[in-house]
Every structure is written in structure tokens, then in C-alpha cells.
Design goal:
alpha+beta, eight-stranded mixed sheet, 6 helices, globular, Acyl_CoA_acyltransferase, acyltransferase, GNAT family N-acetyltransferase, GNAT_dom
Length: about 180
Amino acid sequence: MLFQNGNLKVRKLKEKDKYFLVKWLSDLTVLEFYEGRDNPFDLDKVNEVFYVSKDDTVKCIVEYEDNEIGYIQYYQLDDETKKEYGYLDDNIYGIDQFIGEVKYWNKGFGTLLVTSMVKYLIEHKQADRVVMDPQMKNTRALKCYKKCGFKKIRTLPKHELHEGEYQDCWLIEYKN
């Protein structure tokens, strides 16, 4: 287990978790905000994206009361990304996450998850900043991130391909 905050646990991805990822990433309600409804995942795609890739991203499952409810990943920003975002030599981590079980939406689990992960990265990875790049139109997520202490830094025009169109995103950060 990576960390626990009350009944919320975050642990590294296991082989058995691929079936949760397929379920969540083929749900059109989830895909509307993460990956896109035109980009559903099957078992082969989950294996390729989450289990075969050789990057340094730490991929994790989110549990609440021992039920798998979502996914979160973190990674240290490389020099190219830091330059793109306008950062110098800080120890900066990025995170991406989603609550895959829709019945857990709008109940504070996203806020609990993000604040817990930020605390973990600051305390265990000595992160100076934690950044994300949510789409501007994802108002529910942006509201959550604001509650977690993230600040909008700047726009990232046409930053992410989502449902056939490049979407504008915000660069947001939590500064330690």
C-alpha cells in the first residue's frame, strides 16, 4: 500500500485491477471526462496502456472501505515538460486521476484522494509543486482541485485531444 487516509487507500496497480480499468474506461459517463467517449478501452488496450508501458509513472488503484473505486497516477516532470510549463529546477510531480465508480461522484472522494496524494508527494517525494492540466470545460474537477488548494497558473491552448477536438486546458499547481 502506498498510503491510507481513514478508509481511503491507494496502492500500486496489480494484474487483477485490469478488469476494473476495463469496466471504468468503457463507461461512457467516465469517458466523458477521462479519455473521451470515442476512446473506450478493452482488455488489450488496458494491458497496452497500463501494464506494458515502460515510463516512470507510478500507477495506482484507489480503494474506499476495501472497494476499488478509481485510479490515480503520479510522475516526476521531465525537463521537457517543465520547460513547456515554464518551470525551472523544482522537484515537480504531476498527477492524473479519476473516480471510476460513478456512485462515488460528488461525495467528496475526489477531494479526499487529491489532498491525500498531494500530502504523500510532499512528505515522501519532497515535491515542491504538484501540477495537473485539466480541461477548462471540466468544471466539476476544477472545483474539486480548487478546494484542494490548487491555483490556476495559465492556459494551455489546444492541449489535449478529447473526442476528436483539441481542448484548452488549465495548468494548475499546488505549491508547497
